[in-house]
Amino acid sequence: MAAKSQSLKAFFHDVSYQVRSALPADLQDLHTRNSSRMLQLYYDDPALHFEIWPVYKIERLEIGLHFEGNHATNEWLYRELASQIFDIKFELGHLVEVERWDRGWSRVHETLPLQSFDKAYQQEVTQRLVRYIVVLWPMVQQALQEGNSTL
């Protein structure tokens, strides 16, 4: 298991601060939910959030955009982003997946090797999460605007 050089909650706190600072000004107005198990960053709706959480049983850290709202919205966003998978992989890399998930949820995500929660790993996770937000949030906003008449 990865060594914890700082508490996971402190790691998440530092990542959330650094993400906000690194984002373009028009994307900095994020809300944060930080627990001892995960970090969630969201704009207006906490059900649509960016999340990082360690999956200890497979020694990975998931970075993703989760759709955990009502089924119709989750499905709409899943279909819209799945239809853009080639663009998403071009921008974020070939390891990114768009998939349906537990409880009618869906997500765009990848996993990184779980490492010590030190400053170097914090920087790597921060940069990756910033990239997710910059690439995916405009796609989500566009999909939601297009879907307002059907949802």
Task: Describe the structure concisely for a colleague.
This protein has 151 residues and is of the alpha+beta class. 42% of the residues lie in helices and 24% in strands.
What does this structure look like?
- The chain is globular and about 40 Å long.
- Strands 1-2-3-4-6-5 form a 6-stranded antiparallel sheet, with helices on one face.
- By secondary structure, it is an alpha+beta fold.
- The termini are far apart.
- It has one domain (8-147): Yope Regulator, Chain: A, CATH 3.30.1460.
- Helices cover 42% and strands 24% of the residues.
- Helix 2 packs across helix 4.
Determine the structural class based on helices, strands and strand pairing.
Answer: alpha+beta
Order of helices and strands: HEEEEHHEEH
- Helix content bin: 40-55%
Biggest sheet architecture: 6 strands, antiparallel
- Summed up, the domain count is 1
User: What separation lies between the terminal Cα atoms?
Assistant: 43 Å
Poorly predicted residue ranges: none
Would you state the CATH class?
Alpha Beta
Query: What fold name stands as the CATH topology?
Result: Yope Regulator, Chain: A
Structure summary, number of beta strands: 6
Average of per-residue pLDDT values: 92
* Rounded Rg: 15 Å
β-strand percent reads 15-25%
Instruction: Give the CA-based shape.
Output: globular
The main sheet orders its strands as 1-2-3-4-6-5
